[in-house]
């Protein structure tokens, strides 16, 4: 094995072009587990910790440009207002030790169906900026996940930034696990209100081969909120609408039975999370709130 | 490959390091610092927790090559770290050289088999460094990445409360007892 230590982004791209099978390592929270357990013996390990721009973020007018290696801890501390859904999800990742190292770029690179970043990226609206020596491109996050632990990156590409739309309304994240820490999601859910376009987005993790948006549920709910004139009212979402939204989210799942949970449980749990998180974001919206990060003081609210 | 970095304030060098080797392995097997414990090797248990440039991380998940030129503090360096922060180390023959957090773990009886203790000490020390009066929820969250296989969590929580209380006190003030607060927290998993 060879250890590559590029000191700049250009060096990293050149190294990846020369050794397409090189495995990038940033926080190491996935890669090192595989190496420690002898599940992976890459010919080249490429440390990205020395590439400065990967650890930086910039808040623009409409979106945040998040460096691929920015650890979850930084997102929780610094981007809660702009990216409330992602900040909530970041807070549920692993433990403080893991959050100090793990990053959204790593989550996307691993492309696990259970990745906690994925639902909030899907509901906020995001693009993955991938680059190689051949050039740079932006991949909509919806098109990024191509299968179980597979993504749209070419073998010479690296993730540089994730461009995430700033929240214009409340966002929420919820996940099922046996405890609050150190849990790979049995299933995960995110919902985001976009009052400016009168749309609601909903996304699910760990209940299909890839994370996905429940578009039928989104369309139904967005239409129902419009029809009932709820965006401009002070009213709650009618229980029948919330129930139908939950059913459609459940129905969009294609889960499997595995060690963490059964397919039937996942389908049920996604429905419960959909209904509850919708209630939370709508409550925030009615109270004039923008952010969704209301439930992480003193312990995450039980979903 | 050769890896050079600072551990507990001293420059260390290790030769013939395998490229896939973890920081934990280098510390324990090459630098003679076995305080950080090797248990799960997958970041689940926290027994290998060290500070890397000030942040708590699982040493088993850091590739040795990533630490080149950086600063690591292990459980062996906690007393020095406390001294640098201006805290007074414990006195008395038995406790000499213990940091306030280590002394609190001893006083509260927060050690059973002891295997998780080094990781918990490093995690608890970082918590108190940043938050001198943590709530029970803060303590539970800060220690949520550290597993105690003896399930001795209640006394561990007592020890952290005790260490925080002592740290928050002006120098020379008497230390509160570990006892009275012991039963106030809820049981159950963190």
UniProtKB/TrEMBL annotation, chain A:
The keyword Oxidoreductase is assigned to this record: yes
Domain FAD-binding PCMH-type, residue spans: 1-169
SUPFAM superfamilies per record: CO dehydrogenase flavoprotein C-terminal domain-like, FAD-binding/transporter-associated domain-like
Assigned keywords, A-Z: FAD, Flavoprotein, Oxidoreductase
Pfam families documented for this protein: CO_deh_flav_C, FAD_binding_5
Coiled-coil portions: none
Stored InterPro entries: CO_DH_flav_C, CO_DH_flav_C_dom_sf, Diverse_Substr_Oxidored, FAD-bd_PCMH, FAD-bd_PCMH-like_sf, FAD-bd_PCMH_sub1, FAD-bd_PCMH_sub2, Mopterin_DH_FAD-bd
PROSITE patterns, per database record: FAD_PCMH
UniProt entry tagged with the keyword Flavoprotein: yes
SMART domains registered for this protein in UniProt: CO_deh_flav_C (SM01092)
Domain of life: Bacteria
Descriptive protein name: Carbon monoxide dehydrogenase
Species for this entry: Streptomyces daqingensis
Automatic annotation (TrEMBL), chain B:
Keywords: 2Fe-2S, Iron, Iron-sulfur, Metal-binding, Oxidoreductase
Low complexity bias (residue ranges): 169-183
Domain 2Fe-2S ferredoxin-type intervals: 1-78
Stretches the record annotates as Disordered: 169-190
InterPro entries listed in its UniProt record: 2Fe-2S-bd, 2Fe-2S-bd_dom_sf, 2Fe-2S_ferredoxin-like_sf, 2Fe-2S_ferredoxin-type, 2Fe2S_fd_BS, Beta-grasp_dom_sf, Diverse_Oxidoreductases
Highest rank taxon of the organism: Bacteria
Keyword tRNA-binding carried by entry: no
Claim: Transport is one of the keywords in the record: no
Name recorded for this polypeptide: Oxidoreductase
The organism of origin for this protein: Streptomyces daqingensis
Phylogenetic placement of the source organism: Bacteria, Bacillati, Actinomycetota, Actinomycetes, Kitasatosporales
